[in-house]
From TrEMBL:
SUPFAM superfamilies: PLP-dependent transferases. Residues 46-430 form the Aminotransferase class V domain. Keywords: Aminotransferase, Pyridoxal phosphate, Transferase. The keyword Transferase applies. Coiled coil: none annotated. The lineage of its organism: Bacteria, Bacillati, Actinomycetota, Actinomycetes, Kitasatosporales. It comes from the Bacteria. InterPro entries: Aminotrans_V_dom (IPR000192), PyrdxlP-dep_Trfase (IPR015424), PyrdxlP-dep_Trfase_major (IPR015421), PyrdxlP-dep_Trfase_small (IPR015422). One of its GO terms (molecular function) is transaminase activity. The keyword Cytoplasm does not apply. It comes from Streptomyces smyrnaeus. Its cofactor is pyridoxal 5'-phosphate. This is Aminotransferase class V-fold PLP-dependent enzyme.
Length: 458
């Protein structure tokens, strides 16, 4: 009997929750938070672009597995064998979710940042890297040990392709890699990934897709997008923190020194006649998964992949589009609010919107949303400093003091983001709160503490 027959993942159906209009129920939807004005409110989690709440189904699957937890790959006991099979089945589930091709590898990592640093360490000597300044720091910074061409922010999808074509055409012969985001973590705009991949391949380059923001909202297929690699994080895909994926072509990964040296990455280690140590490394994904793997993290990602697939990305995207339309219309009715965009009003977007409010420091505005309305958003530069400087016209250099208005605008913005677990009420409450803050101002006083705006004590 297969060891996984001992327990099975959740088979609960995926349906809209009539109580909250959620497509996929998430943890934390009943959490009450205190308001400085008195009383409590249900927490409106609108910071999915940083970390999406875990799906209830993912949590249930992990809880069902927890009593059977065991070491992976090197144990003879029943629980070790079960955990090993679970880990490798999770790899196959993720490969199917990503539309991997025959021969592609799925490497489990800690997050998108770890995945892209792993690939950076595996690049052949002399590789030239091409990356737009619009990237999140996780996909902008790992390549600095290589010859990097930083491309200016394009103002349309067509301009992105043309800019890349021009840069690749001027590049000398040799291995080349293009790194591009699938959906911006600042504007939510979807990038022309397949067109960029085709442009890269016309010039003998490969492309890695940062799908951290795209994968939770749209189907991502290596085959359909024609990308060479894809990276994403579990904590943005409705799984807990601490696990991610790098999936794609095996040749550069097999040829590279292991990302980490240690047990699991090695097939054979022996002493040589001269007293040194000789190592034969694994050629499978284990080559870059040294140490005891995060089997629970891998299983949680696989559970989220199953849930999203069963819910249907067309259905998820349609509901998200409806929520996004309501949010954008609410903001458009306020002339004091400027929504940030590269590609313009008609751009394809996921549920991520960043904006600034005339007369407000963004940290102050975000603090008021939290303290007075129980709404959690993100403020700052969203680990995309060059892009924010471009979108804000290089305004300011520092976050500014809490409540600052007039003078030189501060370099920060407000980001609201949502997904499959967001109830309609959270978006409606956010639009109402923005309207009231713009019209009436904050009802409380705030101060700067350790660089953050916080409510003054009563």
């Amino acid at each position: 009997m297969s060891p996984t027959a001992t327990f099975a993942p959740s088979c609960s159906s995926v349906s809209v929750d009539s109580r909250t209009d959620e497509v996929l129920p998430v943890l934390g939807r009943d959490v009450q938070v205190p308001l400085v004005t008195g009383g409590e409110a249900p927490y409106a989690a609108l910071d999915y672009a940083a970390s999406a709440p875990a799906l209830q189904r993912v949590w249930d699957d992990v809880a069902a597995y927890a009593p059977y937890y065991g070491s992976v790959h090197r144990g003879a006991g029943h629980l070790s064998q079960l955990s090993t099979e679970l880990f490798e089945n999770s790899r196959r589930t993720v490969a199917e979710f990503l539309g991997c091709r025959e021969g592609d590898q799925v490497v489990f990592t800690r997050a998108t940042t770890d995945s892209l640093n792993l690939l950076a360490a595996a690049l052949p000597e002399g590789t030239r890297v091409f990356v737009f300044e619009t990237e999140h720091h996780a996909s902008l910074l790992p390549w600095r040990a290589h010859d990097v061409t930083y491309l200016d922010a394009p103002r349309s999808p067509e301009a992105a392709v043309a800019t890349l074509e021009s840069a690749l055409h001027a590049a000398p012969a040799g291995p080349k890699l293009v790194c591009v985001t699938g959906a911006s973590n600042v504007t939510g705009e979807v990038w022309p990934v397949r067109a960029l991949a085709r442009a890269a391949h016309r010039h003998g380059a490969r492309l890695v897709l940062d799908a951290a923001q795209l994968a939770p909202h749209r189907r991502v297929s290596l085959t359909e997008l024609e990308a060479d690699w894809v990276a994403f994080s579990g904590h943005k895909l409705y799984a807990p923190f601490g696990a991610g994926v790098l999936a794609g072509r095996a040749d550069w990964l097999r040829a590279a020194e292991p990302y980490l040296a240690g047990g699991g990455a090695s097939r054979r280690v022996s002493r040589t006649d001269d007293g040194t140590v000789e190592v034969e490394w694994q050629r499978s994904e284990a080559r870059h998964e040294a140490g005891s793997p995060n089997v629970i993290g891998a299983y949680a990602i696989a559970s989220a992949c199953r849930a999203l697939t069963e819910a249907g990305f067309d259905r998820l995207a349609a509901r998200e589009e409806e929520l996004l339309g309501r949010l954008r219309k609410g903001l458009a009715d306020l002339p004091e609010v400027k929504v940030l965009s590269l590609f313009g009003e008609d751009a394809d977007r996921v549920g991520v919107v960043s904006f600034v409010v005339e007369g407000w420091n963004s940290s102050h505005f975000a603090a008021a949303l939290s303290a007075e309305y129980g709404i959690g958003v993100r403020d700052g530069l969203f680990c995309a400093h060059p892009l924010l400087r471009t979108l804000l016209g290089q305004r300011g250099d520092t976050p500014g003091e809490c409540g600052a208005a007039g003078g030189t605008p501060a370099l920060n913005a407000i980001r609201v983001s949502f997904g499959a677990g967001t109830p309609d009420e959270h978006v409606d409450r956010f639009v109402t709160a923005v309207r009231e803050l713009v019209r009436d101002g904050a009802r409380w006083t705030y101060r700067t503490e350790d660089g953050r705006c916080v409510p003054d004590s009563a």
